[in-house]
UniProtKB/TrEMBL annotation:
The lineage of its organism: unclassified sequences, metagenomes, organismal metagenomes. It comes from termite gut metagenome. The keyword Hydrolase applies. It is an enzyme of class 3 (hydrolase). This is Acetylornithine deacetylase. InterPro entries: Bact_exopeptidase_dim_dom, Peptidase_M20_dimer, Peptidase_M20A.
């Protein structure tokens, strides 16, 4: 299957073929990790937040400024820290990334909207984080999707242990991939460097691909994974 849906979190990619796949013991996600095993990956929830005020003329003491309402919640998103921090992925990260308000300079804005990028660790579900956020802010908030979940594979998994014996170093990945949509055990390991992603002239070398084939073969050759309880 060839698809570009991963980059836009669309449903025409891996999700569209999950129902026809056979039982899967382990998925290998070939995202660029410099062939180090990413044994945890952050999830993503995007929030649309709306503050509502009352319009008025800026020259008079009237109206209710929606921007000022939004500022309080934006400050909360900046300062709040969730209790559970992952040794692999660190803390949950919330970033206000877009904001829009106002129609012209002399009108008190009655509406201010902003977008929050929430990166979850494997210790929280996106649903848990959303419920906690709603307890703390006064603006109206909606989540675009809960489906891009954080993922994790046990460091004692046979694949990971074999990679370690071959000199690979497990780590937690802050970037998102199709792994978030896989309802089975998976690990992210692939050729190339993640920092090249989404940059001008993004590339991968032939040597990196060749070395990846060799390492995949060394890890997988003779690898035995128990077939119990495979979804």
């Amino acid at each position: 299957m060839a698809s570009s849906e991963e980059e836009i979190s669309g449903k025409g990619g891996i999700e569209s073929i999950l129902p026809v796949l056979p039982p899967i013991a382990l998925a290998i996600v070939g995202e660029p990790t410099n062939m180090q095993p990413a044994i945890a990956e952050k999830g993503l929830a995007v929030l649309d937040v709306t503050a509502t005020g009352r319009a008025g003329h800026a020259a008079h003491n009237e109206g209710e400024n929606a921007i000022y309402k939004a500022i309080n919640d934006i400050t909360w998103f900046q300062d709040y820290r969730f209790e559970r921090e992952s040794p692999l992925l660190g803390a949950v990260k919330m970033s206000v990334t877009q904001i829009s308000a106002g129609t012209q300079h002399n009108v008190i804005p009655d509406r201010c909207t902003f977008v929050v990028d929430v990166r979850s660790n494997e210790l929280y579900s996106n649903e848990e984080l959303f419920a906690e956020i709603k307890k703390h802010i006064i603006c109206d908030v909606k989540v675009r999707s809960f489906r891009l979940k954080s993922s994790h594979i046990d460091i004692n998994h046979p694949f990971v242990q074999r990679a370690i014996r071959l000199g690979r170093i497990p780590f937690g990945s802050p970037t998102l991939s199709d792994q978030a949509l896989m309802p089975f055990t998976s690990v992210k390991i692939g050729p190339g460097h993640s920092l090249r992603s989404h940059t001008a002239n993004e590339y991968i070398t032939i040597q990196e691909i060749s070395e990846a084939f060799t390492l995949y073969e060394e890890i997988l050759n003779g690898l035995i994974i128990k077939q119990k309880n495979i979804p």
